[in-house]
Amino acid sequence: MTGAVARAEALLAALRRINRVVALGVGALLLGCAALVLADVVLRRLAHSFGGTDEISGYVMAIATAWGMGYALMELGHVRIDFLRARGGAAVRAAFDLFALLTLAGTVSVIGWRAWPVVERSLANGSRANTPLETPLALVQMPWFAGWVWFALMAWLTFLAALVLVLNREFGAADRAIGALGEAEAQK
Fold this sequence. Notes:
Elements: H1 3-45, H2 53-74, H3 90-125, H4 137-167, H5 171-178, H6 181-187
């Protein structure tokens, strides 16, 4: 194993560890949101309500989705159509996987790039939600934007590590890192 391959695999392992911690945080956020909604439902039966739980849960879902995407990437959880990929040899599969990841990284980078003006405008204008809570939108948009940036960073780092693996003809390691989940599980 070359030094570059070892560094690529170490990077991928570190990204998995970091994203598992992120996923635990996202899970805690979702669990807290579910508890808030459940408490509000119970209070409604008693003729009371917190109010705004639908708004808060929408914010939580947007933030959780943005931050959870990096975890899904590292765990091969993103859906893809791979009927052509499955028909090729290891090098063909690796080429399809790299192309898919390059496309994903580029797309997510554009999303992150286009999300910043939304946050910037909310900060500049002091924008608030047009709801009873009048939530300062930047408070929600900043962690949402950061989640997209995180996902883009994960996608690019994963692409670079996988590219090193493929260039060193470590197709099995590349498949475990960026391949289809079923095949990666079969190789473990």
